[in-house]
Amino acid sequence: MTYPFWMPCLVVHGGAGEPPMTERAERQAAVERGLECGWRAMERGAMEAVLAAVRQLEDEPSLNAAVGACLNRDGEIELDAALMEGGELNVGAVGAVKDVRHPVDLARAVMEDGSHVLLTGEGASRFARQRGVETCDPEVFMTDRQLRNWWEAGDTVGAVAFDDRGRTAVAVSTGGTYRKWPGRLGDSPLAGAGFYAEDGMGVACGTGVGEGFMRLCLCHLAVMEMGHGMPAPEVASKAVDHLARRVGGSGGVILIDAKGVPAAACNTSFMSWAKRVG
Ligand code: ASP
Hints:
Layout: E1 9-17, H1 21-41, H2 46-57, E2 79-85, E3 90-97, H3 103-113, E4 118-120, H4 121-131, H5 144-148, E5 157-162, E6 168-174, E7 195-198, E8 202-208, H6 210-216, H7 218-227, H8 232-247, E9 251-257, E10 262-266, E11 270-277
Parallel strand pairs: 3-4
Antiparallel strand pairs: 1-5, 1-11, 2-3, 2-6, 5-6, 7-8, 8-9, 9-10
Helix pairs in contact: 1-2, 7-8
Bound molecules: aspartic acid.
Aspartic acid binds near residues 15, 194 and 207.
């Protein structure tokens, strides 16, 4: 089968927020490593690229996903992750899991199984064990830094990709917000709120205080705007303005439009992100 050739593109973020100046370079370096891993997988398509990037970022202790994730009010880690492919609009997501080594792998298993879109808590962990997705002692995710600074917010991770066949995919993984109520789900495992992908329209991933993204279904809105012709850089900056103005939300977005043009914007003082095109 022949298909038009597109210029592949991958954008990765390590979260938006107000981290101390001393940590910003470390977070940016972690994001660059995620981009490298994702880019190496790009020849296998957009979905493999976002998975490889986010899997790497889940191992970076300076970022708020899996190892190094922020703690809830009870001092525990509860992880959310999701992925979506823009062709058939397949989605897999997990929320509030405590013992899955790579939550994004479990999101993939949920997506590939296809019976459900979002599994949470103990049921999600049981599904992981049944599907042979690696589980672990929750202690694996605790770092000295998180125990020392457990009140500090970390930064979620995410990736959006557009491959040489014009296919889009997005993956996201997070510990959520610091001191969250146990059982709280944010935007990150919710399609349309924290992420969205639709081939021919675009792909978006958010980061920040999830409640604002959820109230606006912000990533779905961003993809629809790109699909209706608004250029990616304008969509990115309007999305974070809308977030601040309409619901007083803070955060950032990364996105790629239907022609493979990437963009990013945030309304916080910092967002670590990186992109590769070509
Ligand atoms: N959006 C995530 C949440 O609310 C947190 C983040 O992006 O830093 O769970």
